[in-house]
Design goal:
This protein is mainly alpha-helical. The chain has a domain of 72 residues: Serine Threonine Protein Phosphatase 5, Tetratricopeptide repeat, CATH 1.25.40.10. The chain is built from 37 helices and no strands. It is elongated.
Length: 655
């Protein structure tokens, strides 16, 4: 035996072992090898350690054989060689080292250095357990639990796991817990027992047991209490480098449970999970990077992680990468690639991907336009209760694109989308509009009210405008003009034209000091110029009344005429009045009569009253009192209170 003795001779432990090894003591040779293996009292030298371990082994020291096998197994300073490792583990086992037996079993079971053969692993695990190694008992138990290499026997597995756990072997505790979680030999799962053993495994330092304990606690109750109790277990698992524990910890923080809510801590937990190789953790960390929640926004890094996840088969990563490819976030905009990614994710059951793919077919983005294919994809998503897909399918049915027009079914699908997910505000609003205006369903403002309220709560501006209108009218919901005004203002600030129309009316006619006719005028001027005829009508009224601006019948007539030409019924009524009176235009009762008649056919109360007044006065037509009364009474029966008053006044007047 040739050794570099300079340092060893100066160290008491090393020199003593060296002397005993020279005297033929195999254990001393192994112990001396350990000093060189670890670099204790001497310079670390794996080759010297291997020579000493081999010497101890050949002289009959079992631990020397096993330690030599470990050097070959891990390639710690010498070439890695699984075949040689197995030979030395086998020799250590023959000499009575339990760890050697266990490691020989691991090599046979996993196929390290030899073809995998769980049946050959079995006797090694059994001998390791017999020799008193708890880990060997745990590995033997796993074979009985899963029926690998031996006949399945959950009771035998439980006994082995229990014995290992009672000897402070954490893996034994985890294995026993898993049996109780499954249910022993056909018995129902016993989650209380499972949790108790997972807790014990966690106390012994097994991160997987900590994660499993946290999961059982989290899923075993409701509300914030179990989630708060699960947190320390997930945290301990994550601190033990358990990737799934980090992911679960991140999900818990992201859910926002009381004081534990933290986007920053969630992002950090997902980052660690990703570092430890958890694909879901990487995906969640990428989502945080994309949104900038809890971590600085980094679209390039997010796209890289989504690409990695997609290549590894995570279809949600493919779905999110497809979205980034359509918007050009972090990657070059590539709608063709986006279509391909959406197709794969849709086939995998990511229904949002089906919906987005449908939008691309509907708009001809990244490929041909085909509303029929879009309808098919929206239908797939809707069948899976994906709310937005139901809403998009309703749109196509309403327009008759890709499918025959069916406004009744469209209204039903809008309602379904809203009830599936009230956060899809536009679907709730469309369902409410259908009931409010009788589009495909009977007019039913009472049914429209809750739908429009949900749309408003989901921050849909048009939904808020329409719900505010109901609050202002106070017929199907309790009147609340103040709240209505606030909602009109919010909708207007969100660029909803109708909200601005009603908010402008509020500003123009509310009592001081809230009245602000200049602001009302500015709103109506802007939206009228942008092509919203109802705003032109309200602007015309301000000019006709001299409210916030110099009174001008000519300007009012111009604006009423423009609004009427663009299809606003109120503009036509205003223009008819101007023509009838000769305000800002040459007097033309015949044109006024035609406009009022058209409006009355559409059951507009003011048009019917104007038409009746012309018939009673004989302005440009023959006096026709019976027809005028008939018009007023019919309008009254439809709920026109002013028509009722006019009909009553005319009926008691002497002809």
């Amino acid at each position: 035996m040739q050794l570099d003795l300079a340092l060893c001779a100066q160290a008491p432990t090393c020199s003593a072992r060296m002397e005993r090894c020279r005297s033929g003591d195999p254990a001393a040779c192994t112990d001396l090898g350990y000093l060189y293996d670890r670099g204790e009292e001497v310079r670390q030298d794996a080759w010297q350690a291997a020579r000493l371990y081999q010497l101890g082994c050949k002289r009959g020291n079992a631990l020397g054989c096993t330690n030599l096998g470990q050097l070959h197994r891990h390639g710690a300073g010498i070439p890695m060689n699984s075949v040689r490792a197995l030979i030395w583990f086998g020799r250590g086992c023959e000499l009575g080292d339990a760890s050697g037996c266990n490691l020989a079993g691991v090599h046979h079971g996993r196929g390290e250095g030899v073809p995998a053969d769980p049946a050959r692993a079995h006797p090694y695990y059994e001998r390791a357990c017999t020799l008193g190694l708890p880990l060997g008992c745990s590995n033997l138990a796993a074979q009985y639990r899963d029926g690998i290499g031996v006949a399945r026997d959950s009771l035998r597995a439980a006994a082995l796991y229990r014995g290992a756990c009672e000897q402070a072997e954490a893996i034994g505790c985890a294995g026993l817990a898993s049996l109780y979680e499954r249910g022993l030999r056909g018995a129902p799962p016993d989650l209380d027992q499972a949790l108790a053993w997972y807790r014990r495994g966690c106390e012994l330092g097994n991160p997987g047991s900590c994660n499993s304990a946290g999961y059982l606690i989290e899923t075993g109750g409701s509300g914030p209490a179990p989630l708060l109790e699960a947190e320390p277990f997930y945290r301990q698992a994550c601190e033990g480098d358990e990737a799934i524990g980090c992911s679960n910890l991140g999900l818990l923080y992201a859910q926002g449970i009381g004081a534990r809510a933290s986007a920053e801590r969630a992002a950090e937990a997902f980052r660690r999970a990703c570092e430890f190789g958890d694909r879901v953790g990487c995906e969640k960390f990428a989502e945080a990077l994309r949104s900038g929640e809890g971590v600085p926004r980094d679209l390039v890094q997010a796209s890289r992680l989504f690409t990695q996840g997609c290549e590894e088969g995570l279809q949600r990563s493919c779905f999110l990468l497809a979205y980034m490819s359509t918007t050009g976030e972090g990657v070059a905009r590539d709608p063709i690639r986006a279509r391909q990614l959406y197709e794969g994710a849709c086939e995998a059951g990511i229904w949002g991907a089906c919906r987005n793919l449908g939008l691309m077919w509907n708009e001809g983005e990244g490929g041909p336009e085909d509303a029929g294919e879009a309808a098919h994809l929206f239908g797939r998503g809707c069948d899976a209760d994906q709310a937005s897909s139901c809403g998009n399918l309703a749109e196509l049915l309403h327009e008759g694109r890709g499918l025959p027009r069916d406004r009744s079914r469209s209204a039903a699908l809008y309602r379904r989308a809203c009830h599936l997910d009230a956060s899809v505000g536009w679907a709730c609003r469309s369902a409410g509009e259908a009931s409010l205006f009788g589009d495909g369903v009977p007019i039913d403002p009472a049914a429209a009210a809750p739908l429009l309220r949900m749309a408003c709560e989901a921050e849909d501006p048009r939904g808020c405008s329409l719900y505010a209108w109901l609050l202002d009218e106070g017929e199907v919901v309790p009147a609340d003009p103040g709240r209505a005004a606030r909602l009109f203002r919010w909708a207007c600030e969100s660029e909803d034209a109708y909200g601005c129309l009603r908010y402008g009316e509020h500003l123009a006619y509310v009592e001081p000091p809230e009245r602000d006719t200049a602001a009302a005028l500015a709103l109506h001027q802007r939206f009228c110029a942008e092509g919203h005829p109802a705003h032109c009508t309200d602007l015309a009224r301000l000019h006709a009344e001299g409210r916030g601006v110099l009174r001008s019948d000519r300007r009012a007539a111009d604006l009423f005429e423009r609004a009427c030409a663009d299809g606003d019924a109120g503009g036509c009524e205003g223009y008819a009045r101007q023509m009838r009176r000769g305000w800002g235009r040459a007097r033309d009762p015949g044109r006024a009569f035609a406009l009022y008649e058209e409006g009355c056919l559409a059951e507009r109360e003011l048009s019917c009253i104007g038409l009746a007044e012309i018939l009673l006065a004989g302005e440009g037509v023959e006096v026709d009192r019976p027809r005028a009364l008939q018009i007023l009474e019919a309008t009254c029966q439809r709920g026109g209170l002013r028509a009722c008053a006019a009909a009553l006044a005319e009926s008691i007047r002497e002809p």
